[in-house]
């Protein structure tokens, strides 16, 4: 008795599907060390670049009393709040950028503040047309990046807290504000103690 044609076709399709799975698995195993190596190289390069940027912050910003980068925009979701409640408290210690004015940033020269923003915000850009850049990323505006001390950076992302605040939930915004202010306050206290102990000018504090 002959085996039904449909049964043979199903058996052949199953064999081909099984073969494809094994081929895919073999390819993954073959290229996995290469992918892991590339990931390791990328992670190491990212770490080295971050350390170099932190050192530049120490050399260029610290003498000016600046310990952080703050980026926001003219969005009605947070502009008035930021300028009334955040900037007056952080401005003496912050380098401030406005994302709405990014067309005026010196992208080609890439000053330190732009490099810091790009490195830790997670934003990336690509050209969709000649001389027209499209930006993409996650929760990169508003954002605060602190260097207190200079080798230890902390990133405070305000996008989600402001989104919650818009819907009547103010607790996340209060919490992230408190965390940021505590970091700045701790730095100020260390600076005062350093000066009182005869360590020198407060802007020399690491």
Outline the structure in words.
This protein is of the alpha+beta class and 206 residues long. It has a domain at 61-199. The protein contains 5 helices and 6 strands, in the order H-E-H-E-H-E-E-E-E-H-H. Helix 2 links the parallel strand 1 and strand 2 (94-98).
Work out the strand percent. 15-25%
Structural class by helix and strand composition: alpha+beta
Helical amount among residues, as a percent range?
40-55%
Main sheet?
A: 4 strands, mixed
Give the total of beta strands: 6
The helix/strand order is HEHEHEEEEHH
- Global outline: globular
Q: Give the neighbour order of strands across the main sheet.
A: 2-1-5-6
Q: What is the typical, i.e. mean, pLDDT?
A: 82
Give the N-to-C terminal Cα separation.
88 Å
Radius of gyration: 26 Å
Low-confidence stretches: 192-197
- Count helical runs: 5
What's the helix and strand layout?
Layout: H1 5-60, E1 68-72, H2 79-90, E2 94-98, H3 112-121, E3 124-129, E4 132-136, E5 143-147, E6 153-157, H4 159-166, H5 171-196
Parallel strand pairs: 1-2
Antiparallel strand pairs: 1-5, 3-4, 5-6
Q: Keywords, please?
A:
4-stranded mixed sheet; alpha+beta; single chain; globular; 206 residues; two-stranded antiparallel ribbon
What's the short version?
With 206 residues, the chain is an alpha+beta fold. The chain is built from five helices and six strands; from the N terminus they run αβαβαββββαα. The longest helix has 56 residues, at 5-60.
């Amino acid at each position: 008795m002959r085996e039904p044609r449909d049964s043979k076709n199903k058996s052949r399709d199953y064999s081909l599907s099984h073969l494809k799975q094994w081929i895919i698995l073999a390819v993954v195993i073959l290229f996995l060390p290469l992918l892991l190596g590339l990931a390791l190289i990328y992670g190491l390069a990212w770490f080295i670049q971050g350390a170099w940027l932190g050192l530049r912050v120490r050399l260029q910003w610290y003498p000016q009393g600046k310990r952080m980068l703050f980026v926001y925009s003219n969005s009605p979701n947070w502009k008035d709040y930021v300028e009334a409640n955040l900037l007056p408290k952080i401005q003496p210690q912050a380098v401030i950028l406005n994302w709405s004015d990014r067309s005026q940033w010196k992208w080609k020269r890439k000053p330190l503040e732009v490099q810091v923003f790009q490195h830790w915000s997670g934003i990336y850009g690509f050209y969709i047309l000649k001389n027209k850049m499209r930006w993409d990323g996650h929760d990169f505006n508003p954002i605060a990046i602190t260097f207190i001390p200079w080798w230890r950076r902390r990133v405070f992302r305000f996008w989600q807290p402001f989104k919650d605040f818009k819907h009547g939930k103010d607790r996340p915004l209060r919490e992230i504000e408190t965390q940021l202010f505590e970091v700045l306050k701790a730095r100020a206290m260390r600076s005062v103690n350093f000066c009182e102990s005869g360590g020198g000018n407060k802007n020399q504090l690491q």
